[in-house]
């Protein structure tokens, strides 16, 4: 029997525990704003990498569970409806950021594939030539500007600093 499936399952569980720990930690530090920021960041990351759907669904449920549990266990001075609203806000923030990440990644891939498919290698050569001409123009501008006089030897502080670099 191969240990690979067991190792993979343990990695998923440990990863989920680490994520839950940091979400809870940020929720303690920044209250509900930390949870909402974590939800937005995780949604954007998961949307851009397009991971497994069950992972995204499980993670999207983590943020509301953490904020609701945290606010109820600390006896926050919020009514139950506001606590539920914060949980729903975390859930919606995750999926809004997930959708934004998917759309952004899709549009970047589409524009990148259109540019490479339509022009191929000549476009890369043109970009290389343009970069070289910009570099020459910049170096020409730098050579025209007045440069400071060369450093005089013997300044101990400057010499020690340059040696330490």
Written description of the protein model:
- The protein contains 5 helices and no strands.
- The protein is mostly helical and 165 residues long.
- It has a domain at 4-101.
- The termini are far apart.
- The model has no long low-confidence stretch (mean pLDDT 77).
Task: Map the helices and strands.
Layout: H1 4-49, H2 53-73, H3 80-119, H4 121-144, H5 156-164
Radius of gyration: 27 Å
Query: Roughly how many Å apart are the termini?
Result: 54 Å
Q: Outline the low-pLDDT stretches.
A: none
The average pLDDT score comes to 77
Tell me the number of strands.
Answer: 0
Descriptive keywords:
mainly alpha
Give a nutshell description of this structure:
With 165 residues, the chain is mainly α. Helix content is 85%, strand content 0%.
């Amino acid at each position: 029997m191969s240990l690979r499936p067991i190792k993979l399952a343990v990695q998923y569980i440990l990863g989920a525990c680490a994520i839950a720990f940091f979400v809870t930690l940020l929720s303690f530090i920044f209250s509900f704003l930390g949870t909402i920021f974590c939800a937005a960041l995780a949604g954007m990351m998961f949307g851009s990498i397009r991971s497994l759907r069950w992972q995204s669904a499980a993670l999207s449920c983590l943020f509301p569970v953490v904020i609701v549990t945290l606010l109820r266990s600390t006896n926050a001075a919020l009514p139950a409806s506001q606590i539920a609203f914060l949980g729903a806000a975390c859930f919606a923030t995750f999926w809004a950021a997930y959708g934004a990440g998917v759309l952004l990644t899709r549009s970047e891939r589409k524009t990148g594939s259109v540019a490479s498919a339509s022009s191929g290698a000549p476009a890369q050569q043109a970009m290389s030539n343009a970069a070289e001409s910009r570099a020459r123009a910049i170096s020409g501008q730098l050579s025209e500007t007045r440069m400071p006089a060369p450093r005089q030897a013997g300044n101990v502080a400057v010499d020690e600093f340059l040696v330490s670099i």
